Amino acid sequence: MPKGRKRPRGTRLGEISSGTNDMANDTNVLEDSTLPIQPQNQARFYVHSLDHSRDFSGIEPEISKLSMKKRGRGSAKLSDEWDSGVKIQVTLNEHGQLFGVREQYNKFISALGALARMGTYLPLNYERWSNMPLDKLDIVWKDVEANTTLPPEAKKIVLQTLNGMWRDWKAHVKAN
């Protein structure tokens, strides 16, 4: 087929290579009338043109299973260590950024994300983060302070991080 020319719908590659659409001369056409039909993203099944008495009712549930949306990993949950009395080792570096051993830091960030998604701590009914009542932010900070080794100077950076996570969660909920 010349470059840039599209193949007509319903034809196979071998059918128009000679410039004609004559299926009688095509050696790739099956003499048997059993042609595979495979709808896109669905289960493969065969249609027999000679046998019209076949029942395809059992195929429907199989196709619907394949068309279901694949689930992702889901949201992170609060660590088992979070309210167990064991403190997550996170601190601030000389630039005022959160810092810690990778495993501990990841647990901390995951816990912050879980707190940002908790409607009891940070409800979504406020239009902006700046409208969030200070008592709610203080409750979250006290919970973070009780479960980490962060100094009081880290409150601002923790609340800024929670702000971004809360806005992302709110946008996600509104989009779905």
UniProtKB/TrEMBL annotation:
Residues 1-27 are annotated as: Disordered. Residues 17-27 have a biased composition (Polar residues). Residues 1-10 have a biased composition (Basic residues). It comes from Handroanthus impetiginosus. This is Uncharacterized protein.
